[in-house]
Amino acid sequence: MTVLSETIAAIEPLDQAASRAAARRLDSLTKPLGSLGYLEEVVRRCAAIRRDPGARIERAAMLVFVADHGVAEEGVSAYPKEVTPQMLRNIANGGAAISVLCRHYGYDLRVVDTGVAIDTRAQALPAVRYRRVGSGTRNFLRGTAMDSDQAQAAIEAGIQTVNEAIGDGATIVGIGEMGIANSTSAAALLCAIIGADAALIAGRGTGLDEAGLLRKVEVIRAALERHRGCFDDGIQLLAALGGFEIAAMAGVCVGAAARRVPVVVDGFIATAAAAVADRIVPGLAQRMFFSHCSAEGGHRLALEHLRVRPLLDLDLRLGEGTGAAIAISIIRAALAMYHQMATFAAAGVAEKL
After folding, report:
1. Residue of 73, 218, 320, 351 with catalytic role
2. pLDDT tens per residue across span 18-64
3. How far is residue 333 from each of residues 3, 199, 326, 347, measured CA to CA in Å?
4. If DSSP codes are grouped into helix, strand and coil, which group holds residue 7?
5. Is 304 among the catalytic positions?
6. Which domains does the chain carry?
């Protein structure tokens, strides 16, 4: 068996009994029934995912995967691919938005190079973990982005990363990314999964003008036509259209499910990874929290397709895991109330008139 097949085999059903037990405790707390709204659903789902009515979540880790995309050569990004290693260094050195948020919240930040075109291993970046599958993917307009073995290796890089984070004490993880042209890969994947036209899904990414956006849409349409035969198989879909960092995030979603750990998905690109993971393991999206509805492209359509509700809607479109980091703080706040509020009985408060 492969690491991926073993991990999938280890995924247990959600624990609905734990969810019901959490619901009973929520109803016993000193508040009107249901008054914490969607936060109560967050608690119940944490209990079901953890298979524990206590829904204990203590340490959080943010897993940020970085890679380059061959489709960048089609002019689908406002920035050159040289920005990818520059941002890798910036995140690792603490200067990026996600770096600030992780310091602010006290999260463990793990930055993983899964395939940056320029190999930075000689540049003394001790904060970066290197799980390089290749030096960027190929141009998926001209052929497949990667072969099947590379797609599986990238997924398993994500599984390895999340297993290490959990082994070091993480009980909730967020996923984020960085990579020039990765919004094109994400849009192509989501078009294939949803069955939507690229004009409804593709966005401006890092700031494309109108002509650039039209070019991006046409590139995605042509690539979808080229690779139409692989849409029903998650791994083959990743091989055709994906990025190494997107595949690794999909691996995190699978690996965390096997370890009973909730995953908090960032924005548009991370949602594409989650959608692929849900294609590989049907129903997996119900084991994740979707942090926010991005201002990028057709993210709302993707969330509706997965039948999930985002925690936030702040017009974010930065990536890096920033939305996921903020959403984790909300999940932890919901669980703090669940654990620390008094019950009606303990507080001596009458439940009804």
Report:
1. 320
2. 999 999 999 999 999 999 999 999 999 999 999 999 998 989 999 99
3. 34, 38, 11, 21
4. helix
5. no
6. 3-55+338-347 (1.10.1610.10), 59-330 (3.40.50.10210)
